[in-house]
Amino acid sequence: MMIAGGSIGYYQGNPLKLIEDCGVLKPTLFPSVPRLFNKIYAKIKTNFDSLTGCKKWLVDRGLAAKHSNLTEQNYASYHSGCYDTLVFGKVGSLLGGNVRMMMTASAPISKDVLEFLKIAFSCPVLEAYGLSETSGAIT
What we know:
The structure is a single chain. By secondary structure, this protein is mostly helical. The protein has one domain (about 30-139). The chain has helices at about 20-25, 35-50, 55-70, 80-90, 110-120, 135-139; strands at about 30, 100-105, 125. Strands 1-2-3 form a 3-stranded parallel β-sheet. Strand 2 (about 100-105), helix 5 (about 110-120) and strand 3 (about 125) form a beta-alpha-beta unit. It starts with 17 loop residues before the first helix and ends with a helix. The model has no long low-confidence stretch (mean pLDDT about 85).
C-alpha cells in the first residue's frame, strides 16, 4: 500500500467509535471482518426498515433497482446516478464517503449481507479466503 502511495489509518481501539474514525480517515479501501460488516448491515437495515411513506418507497425502489442491475449477467453495475444521490449517498458517508472497495476475510459471510453492502456502498465487496491478516488480502 505504501509503495503505491497510499496511507494506512488505524482506529482508536474502541469499536463503538469506528464510524467516527472512518469519518476522519475517509478510507478508499476498507478491509474488515464479517462480524463488523454484519453490524454495519444491521444498523443500515434497521434504519431502512424504520422508514415510512415516500422515503420507504424510495428506499425499496432503490434496493430493487440496484439489486437488479447488480445481478444482470452482462451489466453488473454498482452505481445508479439517481438512487446513489437520493438514497445511498448518506450510507456511503458512514465510512467517510470515499470507499471504492471493501474486503472481508477470516470467516464466512452471508450472501445477503454481501449483496446489501454492494448496493448500499456502491462498490465491490470482495470475499477473500484465509487469515484476514495475511493470505486473505494476498489472494
